From TrEMBL:
<protein>
    <submittedName>
        <fullName>Uncharacterized protein</fullName>
    </submittedName>
</protein>
Amino acid sequence: MCIGMGFLAHVLLRTAVGRPGSVRPALWVTSAVFVVFFALDPIERRLGLG
């Protein structure tokens, strides 16, 4: 979980300081996967699935 948060923090910070081009495409994809991973649990709880 901590590694995923690190990936997200890196991408968000690079984007916030105006350097999104310095983030490699694989890191964007990995970060998007982590966003989905972290969002699944709250979504499942809201829908009563988990």
